[in-house]
Amino acid sequence: MEKIRAAQITCTIYNSVVDRALAVLEEIGLKAYHTQPSRATVLRRREGLWGIGAGLVIEEEPATRLTFHVSVESAEDALQALISVCGLQVPGRGSAVYDEVEIAVESGWEAPQIAPFSGANKIPLRDDLSSIVCTVQQDHGNHIARSSLDLGVPMPQVTTGEGTGLRDKLGLIRVTVPAAKEIVHVTVSDQESEEIFAALVTAGGINEIGAGFIYDSPGTRGIINNMVVHGQQHSASMEQLIAAVDEMKGSADWRRRVLSEETQGYRYLNDLVCMILVCNEGHASDLVIAAMAAGAGGATISKKSYVSFDGQVGAISPARETTELIVGQGAVENIHDALRDVGLYGDEISGFIALKKVGVACTHLGSSRD
Question: What predicted TM-score, i.e. pTM, was given to this entire model?
């Protein structure tokens, strides 16, 4: 498979500022993007009546995930435009990050000519981030989100999808594994990723059969939403205090948690790649079946919308589906060939493939201990 380097940008913002973000992306030269609804989660401090019922409760707000690709050289210009227009440097506004990926040349992607935004504030970007994606059964997403927030992870995002793969292999047991899934997306510092990853495995019981799947992807760059708790009463928020200590210490190493004996025993999968697959709606299930026959495991299929700024109608449908196949590095070529053989790149499917790094992954492996 011939590939080309690119940057996959993900911008997660509240619905109230989506129009602002899209306007600046069109202004700097982006041609098209995918959009997906999500839930932004934070903790809100509830006072209660005379202290009764006071405490922290999880709060949700509708948000949008914008995804698009640019050249690696243009990634920072695109991020700076989004950060400046949407005020993402302010805690609670949203996040904009990018991961380096390799796009299959046969996908037909061409890098747009991105122009620097004249109003950019040149906010320093973080280059010490990792993305963690955790897929669990429907109605379990908020539990993972709350666990993340309790660990100090800012504003987890929850999206939805439909699982396939494991259920098809379970026979009669499949009736106890619902198809509806929730996917929790968090971005954390590299220094904390190992501890947070293990803690989320514990919180979701991910090592148990049918519970879910989690993976981490290092090398993320950008700016993340640092809002954890709404209703902060102090003059300086917890996020500001943490940022100040990070600056004094020169890194976030002081925040590292000691792994408990319980989490140290988990068995992780290594030497993996994330194959990001996007296609016209109605074809993802058949593509996943073909990928599984070539060596892929299960996958969760989500809905996306495709929008072209020029409004031209081509083979790419406005209604799209996407899935992430976490596969062994040695299986990529066979899986890609199998997908191509069933018409991935034809006009009917209009498929797209990108490869992203995976650090580790965890799911049920028969036994959760070494």
Answer: 0.87
